[in-house]
Amino acid sequence: MAFTGIASSSHGGIVRDALGIAIASGAYALSFGAIATTAGLSLLQTAALSTLMFTGASQFALVGVLGAGGSVWAGAATAALLGTRNALYGVRLSSLLGGRGLKSALAAHFVIDETTAMAIARESASGSRFAFWATGIALFALWNLGTLIGALATHALSNPKVLGLDAAPPAAFLALLAPRLRAREPMAVALLAAVVALVFLPFVPAGIPLLIVAALDVVIGLFFPAPRGGRRVRAVDPTGGESD
Amino acid sequence: MLWAGLLIASAGCYALKLAGLSLPQAWLQDPRIQRTVPLLPVALLAALIATQTFSTGHRLVLDVRAAALGVAAIAVLLRAPFLVVVAAGAATAALLRLL
Fold this sequence. Notes:
The complex is a heterodimer. By secondary structure, chain A is mostly helical. Chain A has a domain at 11-168. Chain A is 69% helix and 0% strand. Chain B has 5 helices and 2 strands, in the order H-H-H-E-E-H-H. Chain B has a two-stranded antiparallel sheet with strand order 1-2. In chain B, strand 1 (55-56) and strand 2 form a beta hairpin. The longest helix of chain B is centred in the middle third of the chain and has 24 residues, at 31-54. The mean pLDDT of chain B is 93.
């Protein structure tokens, strides 16, 4: 998610920023809990995704595919493909975070858009480490709390469709996509992906159009050079280009 | 079956995070990787929006979900918070179905 503001260097300022991001994410987790429950996941399954997967776009994609009638494997593949960007965040973070063994294994779980954005905005490595852990811990707590509340509230409804919750996933995907569209090339890729997915949809099993689109993206990425001069998607750009 | 899928997907997502911290930096800094990976979420999210708005099963359809997406788009353009965007989309679908 996009977040703006001047990066604080004091620990107090970092904690304030981290809490702000965590509270916003907790609110967004409410909708995840609601959408996952509407898609047919149990309370435990919904909570397990937020605890174990802990990367928003992948979680929304998985329950979105399930809710639309796709298989859990198509959903799982889409979730993993969306998770590839976290690997690139790790490249920037590994030099800032240092650490080995168990600490590094725990840090890996927290490598997501928000923690990366908070960590790379600091001037010192110690500030980066503090921002990473403060954001990771606060966000993990509120993300899981929000998921639980959203799921419990939705379980209490007799028919979540009355609230239009079955129509909510595309709105959630749009909110995740919008910050990534601030250049011509990603817009073109988005349009192409949408058209290709709809063209294949009537003829292949549910969820497969997404994998076709992913393969198409790999072909574009490998064989077509980046447009010269124009702005392109930055490799590590968890803020969605605002710092560009 | 469902549990297996959820757990394997979670393990895969964790493995990707760990790979970024652990793999040799040169691998992931390959220009082709740096170009392909950031475009993946763009392509996948766009495809998810299109398929989940304009289809039911294997049929292409145009129904209240298109209007819901339009309202969500307006909320995004107005820089509304995430939860408001989702709620606006859901509420639009719910209201139109009542009509």
